[in-house]
Design a protein that fits this description.
Structural class: alpha+beta
Shape: elongated
Order of helices and strands: HEEEEEH
Largest sheet: 5 strands, antiparallel
Oligomer: single chain
Radius of gyration: 21 Å
Number of strands: 5
Length: about 100
C-alpha cells in the first residue's frame, strides 16, 4: 500500500515535471523587431553598485551577442554615441525602457 502510494507520487511528479523539461531552455525574456532585425533580450541584471547600469545579453536575429553593459542614466549626449551604430542605440533604448518600467 505504501509502496503504491510512493510510486503514484513519483509518477505524478514526473508527469508534472515533464513539460518544464521539454520547454525551450534558451527562451528569451523579451523580443522586438528593431532596425529591421529581431532583437531578443536573453538575460538582464542590474548592477548593485551602479543602479543605472544593466548587464545584458541580447541576441540579434538568433545570434547571441556577448555580455555588454548598458548605461541607463538620464540621457546625456555621449561623444562616443555619435559613432555608435543605430542598432546599438536602439538596443540600449530597449533595455533602458524595459528596466525603468
Amino acid at each position: 500500500m505504501v509502496k503504491a502510494f510512493i510510486l503514484a507520487i513519483a509518477g505524478l511528479i514526473w508527469i508534472l515535471g515533464l513539460p518544464a523539461c521539454s520547454a525551450d531552455a534558451s527562451a528569451s525574456i523579451f523580443c522586438r523587431d528593431l532596425v529591421s532585425q529581431q532583437i531578443c533580450l536573453e538575460t538582464i541584471k542590474r548592477s548593485t553598485k551602479y543602479v543605472w547600469q544593466y548587464r545584458a545579453i541580447v541576441s540579434i536575429d538568433g545570434g547571441q551577442q556577448p555580455t555588454k553593459y548598458y548605461d541607463c542614466r538620464p540621457y546625456v549626449v555621449n561623444p562616443n554615441e555619435s559613432t555608435a551604430s543605430s542598432n546599438e542605440v536602439a538596443i540600449r533604448q530597449l533595455i533602458c525602457d524595459l528596466a525603468i518600467h
